[in-house]
Structure prediction request, 1346 residues.
Amino acid sequence: MAKKRYIHAINEALFEEMERDPKVIVFGEDVELAIMGDCRGLLARFGRDRIRNTPICEQTLTGMAVGAAAAGHRVILHLMFSNFIYTGMDAIGNQMAKMRLMSGGQARMPITVIASYGGGGANAAQHSDTAYPPLLNLGGINVATPATPADAKGLLKTAIRGNNPTFFMEAGGRGGEQGEVPEGEHLVPFGKAVIAREGRDLTLVAIGSMLKPALAAAKSLAVEGVDVEVIDPRTLVPFDAAAVLASVRKTGRLVVCDEARERCSAASEIAALVAERGFDSLKAPIRRVTTPNVCIPYAPNAESRVIPGADTIIRACLQISPAKTSLFSAAAQRAAGDLLPGA
Amino acid sequence: MAKKRYIHAINEALFEEMERDPKVIVFGEDVELAIMGDCRGLLARFGRDRIRNTPICEQTLTGMAVGAAAAGHRVILHLMFSNFIYTGMDAIGNQMAKMRLMSGGQARMPITVIASYGGGGANAAQHSDTAYPPLLNLGGINVATPATPADAKGLLKTAIRGNNPTFFMEAGGRGGEQGEVPEGEHLVPFGKAVIAREGRDLTLVAIGSMLKPALAAAKSLAVEGVDVEVIDPRTLVPFDAAAVLASVRKTGRLVVCDEARERCSAASEIAALVAERGFDSLKAPIRRVTTPNVCIPYAPNAESRVIPGADTIIRACLQISPAKTSLFSAAAQRAAGDLLPGA
Amino acid sequence: MTRAAPSRDELFALYERMLLIRRTEERLRDENKAGNLPGAVHLYIGEEAVATGVCAHLRATDMITSTHRGHGHYLAKGGDLNAMVAEIYARRTGICRGMGGSMHVADFSKGILGANGIVGAGFAIATGAAYSAQLAKEGRVVVDFFGDGASNQGTLMECLNIASLWHLPLVFVCEHNRFSEFSPASTVTSGQISDRARAFAIPTLVVDGNDVAAVWEAARAAIERARDGRGPTFIEAHTYRIQGHMEAESLLLGGQHYRDDAEIEGWKQRCPITSLRKQLAALGSVEVSRLEQIESHIMARVDEAVKFAVASEPADPELAFSLMFDGQQP
Amino acid sequence: MTRAAPSRDELFALYERMLLIRRTEERLRDENKAGNLPGAVHLYIGEEAVATGVCAHLRATDMITSTHRGHGHYLAKGGDLNAMVAEIYARRTGICRGMGGSMHVADFSKGILGANGIVGAGFAIATGAAYSAQLAKEGRVVVDFFGDGASNQGTLMECLNIASLWHLPLVFVCEHNRFSEFSPASTVTSGQISDRARAFAIPTLVVDGNDVAAVWEAARAAIERARDGRGPTFIEAHTYRIQGHMEAESLLLGGQHYRDDAEIEGWKQRCPITSLRKQLAALGSVEVSRLEQIESHIMARVDEAVKFAVASEPADPELAFSLMFDGQQP
Ligand SMILES: Cc1ncc(C[n+]2csc(CCOP(=O)(O)OP(=O)(O)O)c2C)c(N)n1
Ligand SMILES: Cc1ncc(C[n+]2csc(CCOP(=O)(O)OP(=O)(O)O)c2C)c(N)n1
Ligand SMILES: [Mg+2]
Ligand SMILES: [Mg+2]
Prediction:
């Protein structure tokens, strides 16, 4: 184990998997110079047959991924920003997600699409979306949302070796975060959540970029006497419903944090799932902490007004926390009284 | 009032609004011959300046809608099948939904996009999706899902006169259904649900194509002694949360039916909303009735296995019905014991 | 180098393949009318020479992408007839086990990457497949069939650009049948389509798509070029759709018209199968009886295929769940 | 008909506009370096002649679409300097009230339909605007600015097709600055870009994009053509991006290179502003002092704009909610 940055963990996974299997190829816009950082060094090592710049044409790139996979390669397509998922959505929704069933199971689609999501960098509306919820609704598409360097490495390796299309969602601006990363063969299974922090009072499901503020929130809440269990689902498709339901059985309370916009978000999905299958355990309303139903504004103050952070999470948790909230500090009580953003 | 077919009600709205405002234009693939039926007769009446065939190029068509709206027209874009929403998704997600905020409120986007959704016609995976959930997650896009001829007319007129982008989702294959349609100035406000059937025991929210099977289910359930209240939200954005919450306050029970795939569906969103804001009224788990997370197969028997109908709805309702279920027929109890499809 | 024109035996093979497509589709037309097919069918009647002339040069390992009008491409590339008809009947014995239907017939084992309901989808799939083929260095070639209407999807340009830049082993075959659904090409398609390829320095060939030998010759050159690593070619084949855009189109049209009956009649006179039959029959009585044998053989095969389909079990609905992912529940 | 070449006064106007763009962006470059701008900026330094030469012919009611590199288009089309700089500073006085930033500067009241962060988005927006303009019959013209990299988005072809079929009052202006981010055009762009328009029978003009008079002349012809209802024109203007793809690109590149310093130097020698200044200064001492006045006037305006921005209130965060819809909560 060594401490590595998130982006280096991704780079390591790419190196290892390309070494391992000559059928793995990477293409996308400006992947050769690796401006997103994750592909750094691959060109020098593997040459232009295995990693190649493309023209700007997302609609074709997603379709090419389908074709190259159908013809026998193991494809990694780099889409840069998750907003460009919309740009290339046709072949994602109409081909990638459907090819296997439409062909009666003939097609294998070993495709990994990498895209960076999320706001916070004053990149404005067209470069800040958290665009995985539409993918979740397509069926046929796996979605991985690593929050830590170790999971970034392990989930990417699993994605590349898998035979189903997977969107590997990089938490934007998290490239610099450090964490222990196991050397070599480190595979994280899909559909296995981790308990990032154990707790008894409340279950806090935090997706990708929300894990860090969720853990910070849990720490503050501990001081207030609320013992929060933080769960990182790691993949949204497949989803580890059992882990979340087990935690809710223990705590009776659920907050779900997702940087995506609220409506039809992964947070909505998880909330619905627990309202359906974990209802009897619930002692309080479920709370979603998400970006409200707006696009991301440019101005940093407006951006932080809409993107959830530890404060927003704390407020939501306090709103549904157990009766001992009466012991809370005055500040926490004031916070709990505030409205959720956008509500 | 006269009895009209769904598709004729839509046609009437188009005629009336084009008469009313010369700035209203229609374009799309083969709209002139009106193969979807809804545009029939418009060419003869308004000429090719106001209704025009385009080449096949959905990615451009959605962007053109943005440009023509920005330049001062009131645009109706016909996209045929809702699967083609994916094809034209770029400008929907990155321009139409965002232009107003990005421009600081300068842009007005009077755009109505018409698309037909849903399965049941053996049209297979690429022509049967119920593709509005991704739109719901975009923010900035209104979504209307008329279930009846009268609402089809009234919502379309409201959409066309509005200044925000609206997707007008035609319930595929429902074009032949009859209903009373008010003549002339019939406007249905956005964000106002209707109670399609009053009831005390359970709230059944049914979206668009699901209203008819939901009403049929409610009728059967009445025989079993379960008095179901059926709510048709009519628009998903904006959404009449108050109406649903009020009903759940009365009934304590909620089933949501949506022809879309389950994950991140409108059903998930509504379930999450009630688990958040109507939790204290809930006496039982929420149930979603949706298409499972698969694409629509061609074979009719497989298609009806995955698309929900009255039976599926009845089963879901019985699973969470009040204690008087003990009075149920043996058959109903057996049905209640079955699993939901895909579960 | 192959010869410039098809030999007599090759012409017979072309004839047989075209007739197989024709008779199969005539039967599908009738079965559709009789209400025996669950879904819609888009027929290739009148355009058989294109798929047949092109696919004659393809190996089993070569790949094609096809369209919503895909029966002809499937059969020309060697797809199994029974399995296709069973698919259209939504049977468990169908090539896609009843999950795809007419618009999605595919046989990956034979390089048939599928008919496709999204107009223009083949461009990018073919380009990706050609990239894969190029990297694999096994001499595989990819052919992308598409219509004049599909040529207006921008992905055509995107793929022309990439195919040209990367010298992909890819042949673009535009089936110009004069209509994009109910829109005549002149109303929705500007310029000569093959000029779009010329702008990317891709060699182009414009051929009479109702002359199977002409198609065969153009395709031979293009496919050899691709196989030799000399890059993509664009073939524009002019032909005509005899049937409606889809069967029972008149229900959609409700009395409206978009073309003249005389035009259809004129093109029926230019039937690629009839003219080849005449040419071959003129060679002598041996050929005439060979033609007759082919006809009866094919009629039997088609009958057999429909019987096979009808006798097959309906599709297994649970496949909708088990086939969504490889080794994973949906 | 306008004269074929710009008059002396017109040249001074062009000079002034180019210099305004240049000095503004030099200041933005410095402010970015100093860490004073919240978001990234993509600068147009070296390419000013294109926007300036084209927009000189546009009326306030004409419309343009722009790119991620949009400050030059905005200023050339008459956008307010203070409001633009305030926008980039994320102030409430910004042209988009701080909601858009550098990549989204827009002034709909002046026909500036917005810079855009989606490469190639302008094609369809401009085509839709041109269709609207054509229907309105008020003689409005639309100009679509886009890069060589953007030319590989298939929507270009889709829009060329529609513009040609419908004879839209639309001028396509390709700013060929030799790079698509860090990819040299030769590696991602096949053929001559204007040939793509030629395939749709759209007239094309290839000009030296660093010669403002040449751009001015080409644009004059194209815009007159559009205004007269004679349809679209495609202009390919060759120029060069002097700054990085975005400011501080070296942080992204981490020591990697994608072009030679010598190449940049060579193009700096071909600065469109310097050469026009020389040409005008050669006319006499009156002109020299006029040039000096322009310089100091512009420096003052830029100073003023930055002061205005810095003194303005930060954006109102609640606008994110109130502006999403017209008259509706999000
Ligand atoms: C993306 C997309 N848009 C629209 C359609 C509807 N549609 C089906 S076939 C067709 C016309 C295709 O014309 P062409 O490519 O010339 O093929 P042809 O039918 O003439 O063989 C259209 C518009 C579709 N299936 N997919
Ligand atoms: C749809 C989309 N894909 C990719 C990008 C990332 N990107 C931003 S600018 C750019 C290159 C654009 O090149 P060009 O059009 O030549 O404009 P230039 O930057 O040279 O002015 C790319 C790939 C984007 N913003 N949008
Ligand atoms: Mg055609
Ligand atoms: Mg460029």
Q: What stands out?
A: The CA atoms of residues 11 and 161 of chain A lie 16 Å apart. The interface with chain D takes residues 29-30, 32-35, 37, 40, 53-57, 59-60, 83, 87, 121-127, 292-295, 297-302, 304-306, 342 of chain A (CB under 8 Å). The first strand of chain A starts at residue 2 and ends at 5.
